[in-house]
Amino acid sequence: MLKVGVLGAGHLGKIHLRLLQQSEKYELVGFYDENADYAEKIAAEFGYKRFPTIATLIHAVDVIDIVTPTLSHYKCARVAIKSGKHIFVEKPISNTVEEAEEIIALAKEHNVKGQVGHVERFNPAFIAVKNMIENPMFIETHRLAEFNPRGTDVPVVLDLMIHDIDAILSVVKSKVKNINASGVSVISDTPDIANARLEFENGCVANLTASRISLKNMRKSRFFQKDAYISVDFLEKKCEVVKMKDAPETPGDFDMILQNAEGVKKQIYFANPEVESNNAILDELETFADAINQNTTPIVTLEHGTEALRVAYQIIDCFKK
């Protein structure tokens, strides 16, 4: 079993601690949190071993799980990697693209593996349809959240939209060619609602909307491609696949047939992929353990996390124009 330590015991850090303690692929050694009084409380309440410094925790483990505020991701990753430890780092990978690129370079130099916590890649609804998403040419995403003061220190693009940016980049096998975006600050000092249009070199267009001042929560993505429409509800963990094929010469009584202006007939049918229940956070942590043990490439690499961050900042730059 890989020995793992957690940096940061806030809301998400506590979830990671609980799941790592349950995991059969890790041995949870302990955690470090810079708030000593809070760390003592967590240690007393849950029985996790509290380490007095980052250095002592890093020395005791094989893997460091970085669940600290984004501003400290780079500093924590740098220390861990230079100590020869594998790193799992929550999204976004770092505060700047330059920091992210240095994390990649350090990981290569010290021959350690890294994974970024883009948890929606492990959402069971997305997993169920990902292999059916082939060359999508139009994508629409809505990620809306009710207001929560936690997270308003960063633009909504880095807080929420980056999930969809990463998911889109994982299925569109082409480079981003052009970006247009607008954002509005309503409650926070940074934009609370944003819309972005990504144009790819292969002609694909993605329209992304994110808001943290919505009256209801929504996390939906729709993928349109030749002869198919695929919908993913990340919140409800449901998916829908609508496909078209050439209509049979003698359609059945219940076949759904469409005919275009040229007289071409298509049959519509529905595929219902099985969505297998899972714990996405546990899965992302355990697949990282598999990548380390089997010396394979992590599912969400440091490069993937960096590219999502790069596009996110290109969107944010559009707000300033």
From TrEMBL:
Domain GFO/IDH/MocA-like oxidoreductase, first and last residues per copy: 156-216
Record-annotated Gfo/Idh/MocA-like oxidoreductase N-terminal domain positions: 2-118
Domain of life the protein comes from: Bacteria
Entries under Pfam families matching the protein: GFO_IDH_MocA, GFO_IDH_MocA_C3
Gene3D superfamilies from the UniProt entry: Dihydrodipicolinate Reductase, domain 2, NAD(P)-binding Rossmann-like Domain
Gene Ontology terms for molecular function: nucleotide binding
Matches recorded under InterPro entries: Gfo/Idh/MocA-like_OxRdtase_N (IPR000683), Gfo/Idh/MocA_Oxidoreductases (IPR051450), GFO_IDH_MocA-like_dom (IPR055170), NAD(P)-bd_dom_sf (IPR036291)
Protein name per its UniProtKB record: Predicted dehydrogenase
Taxonomic path: Bacteria, Pseudomonadati, Bacteroidota, Flavobacteriia, Flavobacteriales
